[in-house]
Specification:
The chain is an all-alpha fold. The protein is built from three helices and no strands. Helix 2 runs antiparallel to helix 3. The N and C termini lie far apart (34 Å). The relative contact order is 0.17.
Length: 98
Amino acid sequence: MEGKPEWAVLPFDALEHVVRVFEYGASPAKYKKPYTYRAGITHSKLFSASIRHLKAWWCGETYSIDSKCHHLAHVAANCLMLLSMIDKKEFDDRDKKS
């Protein structure tokens, strides 16, 4: 996979759901301003949020009650935030020993 990224392979219909999650996070209803995650969030917080959304989806709830966004879009957003902080070691609080 060399050269320019082939953006056309992305599922834009699914990504739109993820964008809605980020919009919700940037709204006054949630965090008051956009991009607060860029300052850093512990990996455990994002992992826990992902598991809560996966569990809710697995148990039959499609949309988050507060955001009205798809639970799986929340999981994807959390994973994207984790990827965006991959080099911010100070937020990596995983238990690497167990």
